[in-house]
Amino acid sequence: MRSFGRCMMSFALLEIQFSGTISVEIFCPDWWNSKKTMSRKKYDYIIIGAGVVGSMVARWLSRYQADILLIDKDADVCMGATAANSAIIHPGYDPVPGSLKALTNVRANPMWDQLSQELGFAFERPGDFVVAIGEAELPALERLYQQGIRNGVPGMRLISADEMCEREPLINPDVSGALWASTGGICDPFQAAIAAAENAVLNGVEVLLNTEFVDFLMEGSHIVGIRTNRGDFSARWVINAAGIHADQVMHRAGVRPEFQIKARKGEYLVFDSAEITTKHIYFPVPTDKGKGILVTNTVHGNTIIGPNANVIEDKEDTSSTKEGLDEITEGARKLIPSLNPRAAIATFVGLRPMGNARSIDPNVDYGNDFVIEIPENVRGLVNLGGIESPGLTASPAIAEMVVELLKDAGEKLVEKKEWNPIRPARPRFRNMSHAQRQALCETDPAYGRVICRCENVTEGEIIREIHAPIPAVTYDAIKRRTWLGTGRCQGGFDMSRVVAILSRELGISPLEVSKRGIESEFLFRQTKDLEVGGAN
Amino acid sequence: MLIKDIYDVVVIGAGPSGLAAAIEAKKAGARDVLVIERDVELGGILLQCIHNGFGLQTFKEDLPGPEYAQRYINEARAIGVEFLLDTMVMDVTPQKRLFLSSQQYGYFALDARAIVLAMGCRERTRAQVRIPGMRPNGVYTAGTAQRWVNVEGYMPGKNFVILGSGDIGMIMARRLTFEGAKVSRVLEIQSYLSGLSRNYVQCLQDWDIPLQLQHTIKRVIGKNRVEAIESVAVDERWNFIPGTEEIVPCDTLLLSVGLIPENELSKKAGVLLDPVTGGPFVDERFQTNVPGIFAAGNVVHVYDLVDYVSIAGDTAGMNAAKYALTESQSEVDYIPVKAGRNVRYVVPHKLDRRALQRGDVQLQLRVTKPIEEDVWLEVRDENKSIVRRSERYARPGEMVTILLKPSMADAVREAISLTVDVYPKAEA
Amino acid sequence: MEEKNFICTACPMGCKLIVRMEGEEVVKVLGHRCRRGETYGRQEATAPQRMVASTVKVLGGLHPLLPVYTKGSIPKRRIGDVLSAIRAVEVKAPIKAEDVIIPNVIGTGVDVIASRDMPEKE
């Protein structure tokens, strides 16, 4: 056996140190059915929806002395739009000047460097290109450039077709020019959001999953709490960050009855990193349907393509279609003609919450803006709605705005002395050098057992996630935290092993282990547990 | 166990090819032979293949998978092969240093004089066959379900639909039926069966499980768990035929849609892969382009019968030992071996000009389309026929072989290239 | 005269056999291309045989199930009974490959044996 020299661990502490109590309920199956009454504590702030917006708001508010509760209807945080989008931190040349989309986008873009440092998630700035194909598309670049200038976007430049080809040899040779924006970034949106939510938990925020908003508790026009499927919770303020369902939530308080969120479905394909690697982010020239079908690298090294944009009625319909996948393949091949659809290893579908709010600035003629407000007709509600793209990018600025709105409303926000902005990243075996791996295995032998062989995720990492500040208690929860099961075999090898580890660590039967919460269990019975005689 | 710094031969994978390679390497004189296996026991995927049908060539017996593996395991143990279980090879360098990760031994490296890649293959997944629809739980590859049902002891569904008429899918159809589950149908997009007809008879026909050829899945239905699939008939070009859609209620969809050689490690070692097979380019000793790195079994190309996998392991193991013991190899003058008419690929990809002086060489190939009449299998040098033999049919689902014998040594030594054709006798 | 159709499994070729029957008697086998095919057709038409492989519960083993199989063919119509007999059995580790798990299963004269060693769980 050959050994390596001792090395310094390049990542921070392996075990997260924190003081105070952490309350996150682990969802064991018997619990799903029980409706045990929650603490009678009166919260200062309850946040509905633990997507990237709700998580960022929780993290921003956790800086202040307050009792805060973050709830989500799903079995894990970030199971809506946060988990299925293009994963891009936009420069901000695209939104209509003067809109909240433009303001928050441009304000938030530079925040991501510090955010990723503090919260320990992967973030890169490869820069993005809007690529014009054919001479007819060229004028659109100039318009976008001017719009970017008006929005205050730094680092933009119009480049020639030759330069574009040089910077990406795979680009369509019919390219006529491109808009280059150096501030375009990529992150793993789920990782960013859960890091924010975990940081909030480490700073005292409570999280309740599988907890669905039913109604507001009101005294006159005062909101005093919420009713959920798991009981009533008192609060002085409720922050509506319910994503695609934010319209239904605000309507329960009698706010903005005319506001409607439609689901705009976007389909994506993920490519095997061994088959294709693209260097940057490539957008086509935008149309009235949105930014169009793009090609981008991800922080995991995979190239993704998508999305198309189809408004649908059912807010739960995340199904892909043959036509849709053909559409995005064709769209992406307009940019990168050599893209081979056979190298696709996964599909995913996201629903953008498209709202119909007019911009608050009467001089801005735009009808799909964000809603970020304390409405006038009720007391105790911070209302966030229609947070579609660039919502991921904008989320830290939205969180900042929520704090400002509360201050304006007279909230005495007192900073905690002990607030810690750092959420240490947990080790990721796949990204380590040989020496780092050896050192890691010496801290805990479970890091030596590789469970996912395509993505090299170890048992040690899985165990850490199961017992993390926001525990991963389902297969998908582990998958999204560790990137396990996302490679070529798509979980074929790790699935049964992860089910066994979850069963052991949570002290539940393998029959109770699920993919993403109740009714998505893997197994029905033991092979030999058959009441009636078998084969006839 | 004491782990050494260097081994004569290191075999990656303890499935049928790896075990056979280790045994032959030891027999050929290699002193230290180490098999590295990521599972907690030896035998590979054979351990979950509890049905019979293995070993008819090797042992002249009809054995289940575990028993076939057991015989090799027993022999490997008896002959002094060393094993590292529950250990994953993370990296291999062209200089043949291996980086290993294990709960028991930690993260460490060791060196090999020769390596045999025997990682086998993996199953194609839902995304690779592009099944649209929702993404609920309950869509598994047949092999994943097989491990649960046969090894871990759990049933992953009650009411199944199987996509693909590969052997594992058909065998699982019977297996699930035996354990009290319902298998409502098997769908196959091709116009012909992709597995063996014996499995069609004994696994589907015996149990009245319908097989629908030229059918596939239009979409998966269900939010959290599969609730149904929508099946659809397809034309020759696999386009959906409108009006043929049918909603089939089920809670589980099993995929038996093909296997792909598993070569991520091979790439790290600088081994070049054939895009057609998905496996390394190899010569008749199963040596890859990297000197001293050999490959055997399903990692090279997907076989139809385990017996041939073991034979490939024998060849690779013996040659790996020879390489390790001499540590050098004289320049080899290779003749390319090419796929000709109706042939998808031929393994080995190249042949030492002098190979036939040392003994027989078996060419292994797959055809591109079924030919249901008497065919010639022919090896030629440009337009000059070297050997041909006849078969009564040729099908993509079954590997075809043709033997080059020492009697052909002269013709092969002078050849520019070797091309293999398969064609109906009527076209001769 | 009755005709039965079979796909021959004597080799991978899969010839489509037609077996002409007079009551229980085979009159003629058609469609085969070798003698094994004719034998198969006669057997399949009168007394089809199958091997059966399944698993039994095992206590204290590395795995919860032990794979087993019939050491020879049994009548096809009795597969269900053989499976029921196999399901009723529970064994204790350690087990050696080819250990007899059920001798003479349901009187067929065929033993059900272990397909592998099953060591004790550590």
Walk me through this protein's architecture.
With 536 residues, chain A is an alpha+beta fold. Chain A folds into 3 domains: 29-82 and 190-260 and 358-408, FAD/NAD(P)-binding domain, CATH 3.50.50; 123-186 and 262-352, D-Amino Acid Oxidase, Chain A, domain 2 (2-Layer Sandwich); 429-512, BFD-like [2Fe-2S]-binding domain (Arc Repressor Mutant, subunit A). Chain A contains 14 helices and 23 strands. In chain A, helix 2 (52-61) packs parallel to helix 10 (391-408) and helix 12 (459-466) crosses helix 14 (494-506). The model of chain A is unreliable at 5-23, 25-37 and 532-536 (pLDDT under 50). Chain B has 3 domains: 6-122 and 260-329, FAD/NAD(P)-binding domain (3-Layer(bba) Sandwich), CATH 3.50.50; 125-257, FAD/NAD(P)-binding domain (3-Layer(bba) Sandwich); 338-427, Immunoglobulin-like (Sandwich), CATH 2.60.40. Chain B has 9 helices and 26 strands. Chain B has helices at 16-27, 65-79, 142-152, 167-178, 197-204, 264-268, 306-326, 355-358, 409-413; strands spanning 6-12, 33-36, 82-84, 87-92, 97-102, 106-117, 121-123, 139-141, 154-155, 159-163, 182-188, 211-213, 215-221, 228-233, 246-249, 252-255, 259-261, 293-295, 334-339, 343-347, 350-352, 361-367, 375-381, 384-391, 400-404, 418-424. In chain B, the strands form 6 sheets. In chain B, strands 1, 2, 3, 4, 5, 6 and 18 form a 7-stranded mixed beta sheet that branches. With 122 residues, chain C is an alpha+beta fold. In chain C, the strands form 3 sheets. In chain C, strands 8-5-6-10-9 form a 5-stranded mixed beta sheet. Chain C has a 3-stranded antiparallel beta sheet with strand order 1-2-3, covered by helices on one side. A two-stranded antiparallel sheet of chain C has the order 4-7. Chain C is elongated. The model of chain C has no long low-confidence stretch (mean pLDDT 95). The interface between A and B is large, with 70 and 66 residues. Strand 23 of chain A pairs antiparallel with strand 9 (154-155) of chain B, so a sheet runs across the interface.
